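debug: dumping io for the single-chain case to check the tokenizer round-trip. Nothing else runs in this session.
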Amino acid sequence: MAERVIRQLIDDIDGSEISDGKGESIEFSIRGERYRIDLSAQNVTKFDKAISLYLKAATKVSASDASARKPASKRSGRSRTPKVQLSQVREWASENGYEVSSRGRIAGEIVEAYEAAHAG
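debug: decoded output
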């Protein structure tokens, strides 16, 4: 028995099928988040036109440049926040619009925001 898998790209904007060679998957990054969008040739043209003003003014950054500018976090062998406070951090984070799971590690930026909100 044979199986045939057909990969069909769908335009993420208008839902149309993208014929072979008639569209693109475009990857881009903004504010530290990476994105990918599948577009038909027509929507690729619209995307390129919409972003061209910003690309002309921007400076191209290589992957090594981007990681070099990111400050390295200092890590000790243990958490800075005592375990008794973790439930308070989770509760505060949820009340203040952060996504935090009920178990596991809490992102450092959330702990720092909690500490800043409760400083002094």
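debug: round-trip ok. Residues 67 and 110 are 21 Å apart (CA to CA).
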